[in-house]
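Continuing the batch. This is chain 6 of the set; chains 1 through 5 are on the previous pages. Same settings as before, nothing changed between runs. Recording input and output for traceability.
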Amino acid sequence: MRIPAHSVCTAIRDDIVAGVYERGSRLTEELLARRYGVSRVPVREALRTLEAEGFVVTRRHAGACVAEPTEQEAADLLEMRMLLEPLGAARAAQRRTEAHLKVLRGLVRLGQERARRGNSDDLRSLGGWFHETLAQASGSPALTSVLTQLRHKIAWMYTVEAPAGPVESWSEHGAIVDAVARGDSERARAVTALHAERATAAHRLRFGSAGERADRVRNSQHPVNTASLRH
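Output for chain 6:
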């Protein structure tokens, strides 16, 4: 049975994000086909997709290689997420379904419970599921796709420190869901913007000097008016 190219693409992307393939390393069709137990055809299709996503580049005389993003390109990703996640939350307030709300509320309850108990092992994956569901609730496949790609690339380029206040972080998740449930687009947008700004400060670039990383984090943040959120 022919394995779909999108399954091969997911496997290669996951390995790039996990650091199995280093930045700049070659990705030969033969070795990839052998690793994933497939023919070279789905590998070739997967590499084309990953090149379009920015994970892979084709170099003369070398073929497909893992991309080597610059610090500015990495900073741009965080800025894009800070702009698009609030938009997605605002759209979700208008378009969410009861099924979306049920999942979001369940994730918030679970996240808050784990945070109170100090059980942080699952909080990162729960947070990922929360934001993925929130993006899906926007009712915009294009926006959901862009946000999914951003999450993959940010996970590849950055390490994320555990939040100093996980209970507060999940309280913000709860406030986002409350606004979405009420259909309050502006509130959903504002709370999500504040949450995204705080989350950005926990990101540390996987490459570059410590000083450059600190400058990049400071420069990528934008002031958010928090006065209206304290109620």
